[in-house]
UniProtKB/TrEMBL annotation:
Pfam families: Zn_peptidase_2 (PF04298). Keywords: Hydrolase, Membrane, Protease, Transmembrane, Transmembrane helix. The chain crosses the membrane at residues 6-22, 116-138, 144-167, 194-221. The keyword Transmembrane applies. The keyword Protease applies. InterPro entries: Zn_peptidase_2 (IPR007395). This is Zn-dependent protease. One of its GO terms (biological process) is proteolysis. One of its GO terms (molecular function) is peptidase activity. It comes from Siminovitchia fortis. Signal peptide: none annotated.
Length: 225
């Protein structure tokens, strides 16, 4: 019972800590004006044009930290604050999303694989727990638990594959901002802090998903010994 309680606390605390970290870091550096005075929209446009991505649009989207790149429409979406405000955080986030656009342009293998997994992960994640709950409630229906584990594994694989995609986009973002002179030397460390904090949310989500999958696998194996 004690071990289960510790496990439960870990899978609850780790994601909360990661979310707190990214929000705290983002809030801090969103208030720090960038030396170049460029809002996120301009930072994104500069990097896109420098890489020949003239067809990729930059649009404002509602919400906070709702920034993303849509490979279907070839559009970089920036939250209102990052779109308009010239801040270190806004520049870092905008550059990161453009990093995904560059990945898309260059056919980055991990990004392609993640895109291919999207429909499978969406379906499996929605129905996996139905089979898992049925399998956990009835020892006579272990096969249902196994089906749930297999479905859940697809969603976990998606989260694991997301890690290199996100880290690579951040690396590209830093390279582009530095080489194009979009941030000053003293701002490099701050921009990296923003990107690293954001990456931790993906690391935490993947770690928790893997732990939960392993726990269910152990339950299944112990039942069938």
């Amino acid at each position: 019972m004690g071990g289960f309680l510790i496990y439960f606390l870990i899978i609850m605390i780790v994601p909360i800590w990661a979310q707190f970290k990214v929000k705290n870091t983002y809030n801090k550096f969103s208030k720090v004006a960038s030396a170049e005075g460029m809002p996120g929209a301009e930072v994104a446009r500069r990097i896109l044009d420098a890489n020949g991505l003239y067809n990729v649009q930059v649009k404002e989207t509602p919400g906070v930290l709702s920034d993303h790149y849509n490979p279907m429409t070839k559009t970089v979406h920036l939250s209102s604050e990052n779109f308009h405000r010239p801040s270190v955080a806004g520049a870092a986030v905008a550059a990161h999303e453009v990093g995904h656009a560059i990945q898309d342009q260059q056919g980055y293998a991990a990004l392609r694989f993640r895109h291919a997994l999207v429909p499978v992960a969406n379906i499996s994640s929605n129905i996996a727990w139905i089979f898992i709950i049925i399998g956990l409630l009835s020892t006579a229906m272990s096969n249902m638990l196994l089906i749930g584990i297999i479905l859940m594994a697809a969603g976990v694989l998606f989260q694991v594959v997301t890690l290199p995609v996100e880290f690579n986009a951040s690396s590209r973002a830093m390279d582009q901002m530095v080489s194009l002179g979009l941030i000053s030397n003293r701002e490099e460390r701050d921009a990296r802090k923003v990107l690293n904090a954001a990456a931790m949310t993906y690391v935490a989500a993947a770690a928790v998903a893997v732990m939960e999958l392993l726990r269910l696998i152990l339950i299944f194996v112990n039942r069938n010994e």
